[in-house]
Amino acid sequence: MSMGRYAGSADPRAPEPVEVVKDWNGVAHAVLRSPRGATARVSLHGGQVVSWKNDRGEELLFTSSKAILKPPKAMRGGIPICFPQFGNTGTLERHGFARNKIWALDDEPPQLNHSDNGSKAFVDLILRPSDEDLRCWPHCFEFRLRVSLSKDGDLSLVSRVRNVNCKPFSFSFAYHTYLSVSDISEVRIEGLETLDYLDNLSQRERHTEQGDAITFESEVDRVYVSSPNVIAVLDHEKKRTFVIRKEGLPDTVVWNPWEKKSKTIADFGDEEYKQTLCVDAAAAERSITLKPGEEWRGKLELSAVPSTNCSDHLDQPGIM
Ligand SMILES: O=P(O)(O)OC[C@H]1O[C@H](O)[C@H](O)[C@@H](O)[C@@H]1O
């Protein structure tokens, strides 16, 4: 089984950096721990990160209090993997089938790169299509996912999709990242200003973002096309900034249901819309095409840092 260890941990009493446990449904979860106490939990149901906590034990991802945590229902929260379809743009169920499947621990993942191993706790998962998947989406693929937690508690997800078919196929994709925020009306997103977006609330009409930053006063469901690789989400009340870095994913989807829509979402508690913000690193607008034998990589890196001046984060180079 491919699970990473922190190099040179001197304390033999230190908790294991990677442990596999079962949840109450009997579904395996990999628990990643950093030496300073940050944790991440990855469920084999959906290959979904269901929890990410900082070294003070504060949960950084939102999960609905009414989320249905039983396969084959998708869990509303954490970081669902939307594949091979994002949203309702194709013939498959919304956001594709990957988030509803039981993934396997990957025993022999092909090497990723050296820098990704030594200093991180990580786990490798794999999804291959079942006969049922092939009936609704007739393309043979291997989807490998590595989830890593750095010593500083940063979370990263690397997806590798390989075409093991004899003909090309196309797919759309998103890391559907449910961030936990204190109050959505106190939150702003920087890094998407002046960009074009497609508004899912008005027949995907194209608009250009006008403000200095994105703020929230009503429902928002937008695809920012060709967005930069570094975006910051500032939570004034929590004095916390999420820095989102992406690679291989051209778009950013921003979603908050606001009060009215959230009442129509069955597994969504009252007022929970205030604590939810999805900022998805995605290939939503333009799909990715793979020829036989080709592989695509898409990476998401998340850091949660005390709020200072957000431009400090945006000035950092991308992760390419
Ligand atoms: O409720 P979920 O399946 O998690 O999807 C929630 C939302 O995800 C995306 O952001 C889409 O753009 C929205 O249209 C959708 O409502």
TL;DR?
By secondary structure, the chain is mainly β.
Verbal overview:
With 320 residues, the chain is mainly beta. It has a single domain, classed as Beta-galactosidase, Chain A, domain 5 (Distorted Sandwich), CATH 2.70.98. The protein contains three helices and 20 strands. The chain has helices at 131-136, 258-264, 310-314; strands at 18-22, 28-33, 39-43, 48-53, 81-82, 104-105, 120-127, 141-150, 155-163, 169-175, 178-180, 187-190, 196-199, 205-208, 220-224, 230-235, 240-247, 251-256, 276-290, 295-306. The strands form three sheets. Strands 5, 10, 11, 13, 14, 15, 18 and 19 form an eight-stranded antiparallel beta sheet that branches. Strand 2 (28-33) and strand 3 (39-43) form a beta hairpin. The two termini are 28 Å apart. The chain binds 6-O-phosphono-alpha-D-glucopyranose. The site of 6-O-phosphono-alpha-D-glucopyranose has 11 residues, from strand 18 and strand 19.
The portion of residues assigned to helices is under 10%
Question: Which sequence of SSEs, written as H and E, runs from N to C?
Answer: EEEEEEEHEEEEEEEEEEEHEEH
Overall mean pLDDT stands at 91
Bound molecules: 6-O-phosphono-alpha-D-glucopyranose
How many β strands by DSSP? 20
Beta-strand content: 35-45%
Largest sheet: 8 strands, antiparallel
| Low-pLDDT residue spans | none
- Number of DSSP helical runs: 3
CATH fold topology: Beta-galactosidase, Chain A, domain 5
CATH architecture group name? Distorted Sandwich
Distance from first to last alpha carbon:
28 Å
The best one-word shape is globular
Number of domains: 1
CATH class: Mainly Beta
Structural class: mainly beta
Radius of gyration: 19 Å
EC number: 5.1.3.15
Protein name: glucose-6-phosphate 1-epimerase
Enzyme class: isomerase
Pfam families: Aldose_epim
